[in-house]
Prior knowledge:
By secondary structure, the chain is mostly beta strands. It is built from seven helices and 26 strands. Strands 1, 3, 4, 6, 7, 11, 12 and 26 form an eight-stranded mixed β-sheet that branches. A six-stranded antiparallel β-sheet has the order 5-2-8-9-10-25, with no helix packed on it.
Amino acid sequence: MAHQNSSQPHDATDSGAPLVFGPLGGFGLENVYVHFLGGGGQGIRGHYYEKSLQRMAPLSLDTPYRLSDIVSPVPVGRGAPANMPSVFIEHFISGRVYISIGSPLKNLGNGYQPASANPSDPNYRIRYQYFEPTFDDYGVHVNLSYIDCLALGFILMAVNSTHVRNSPLATLVNTKTLATAAANAATPPGANVVPSAQSLPPAPDFARVLPPMAYHDAHNANPLYHDWSDYLQKILPHGSVRIAGCFAGSQAGNISPPERLTSQSYDYIAVFDAKGYVTMTAQKGSGTANAKCGGIAGHGVGDRSAVTITFEALNATNGIYGCDPGYGWSYVDPQGNPQRGTTASITNDFFGWVVGDLLAGLNFGFPGSVVGFNGSLIRDLPSTKWWGGTMPDGAVIDPADTPAGRGVLFQKAQPGQPWNYNAYAASIQDMVTAYGFSLQDRLGTVLMEFDRTSDPDSFLMVQISNDQ
């Protein structure tokens, strides 16, 4: 909606919050562009100050806004500072905010998202980075992701909020340091830098570092990073992995039978064979509906259940790296009828959560780890005790008292074994509060949330790190 009166800030009774751009790492306002893409089919509702009209105007998807053109002489909303580049977002669900340097993004629209690893993409040589916010009636929810590309260091913070969770989401080093560390994770080092290994910041032609998932949906081993054959075929067949905890339940509307959506416990033993195939077999009491796990009532899948994943699915780029392999599942329903199926990717249900525990653990290097923790080897701990949560018996595991909570992950869980964890995510772990792979939210620290109902002057501030 447009706001005709430029002398007054936005009415604080509306939903949403200001998005304000702070220090830009030495880049000039005239050389930085912001774009709003996605939005879950619902688009974006918000406004900015349009200088040519001398009033507020509605925001649009798929439109480049030069920061020098969105400096508002008045607050765009309650709490927002005047005379800074800013917009007010009322509604934007699961969107992406892309920031580019030097040039706006091209060919936007029709659901397009830049393909960071595709040399034919029209934006391949443009330097850009995104973060992922939701602005809705419940507040602001935002994460910082380096899953698809690494080009700019961001600092995201909730300003004027005393009730915020996980603020700031910060890049703790300059972009040269961050990009160099990520470049050294590739095989060979620097092979993941666009346009070349010699183009790291502050080189003017630097575009990005390509993470493993820059190659989306690749059904083959990743071309830039190690494959998983040693870990899956040589290390893990010598033991088993316990995947156990609580599934909170799901309200996904396209999944049946309903037992797959119920809040319930899970307890599986995963066994890898010499080919790297894994079979996960339910243990006694697994799949029991449990209100302590969540609020979705019904029957669970029970303990006559199994999940299977092939080596090829795990080793593909969209497997362990992408946390999105296909798998097979089976169980016997409460009426005694066998249920089974296969998926092409991970699903938002009980089996997807169970598989997700295994995938997150493999990225972190927990399965097979012979590092000691609290009197046990990490490989002998059930998955919930890797990062915290609720066990099948209702016991609550404090995240601070877990290997993940104490930073014993990646190379610290697999010392001297660089093929046994996600080397890219490991390379940036101590430098950013961000996603290095898509299930890193098992750690519970990568999502910032705040609410203008409790903090009516709060807003989201975005800063860009210096290159060096």
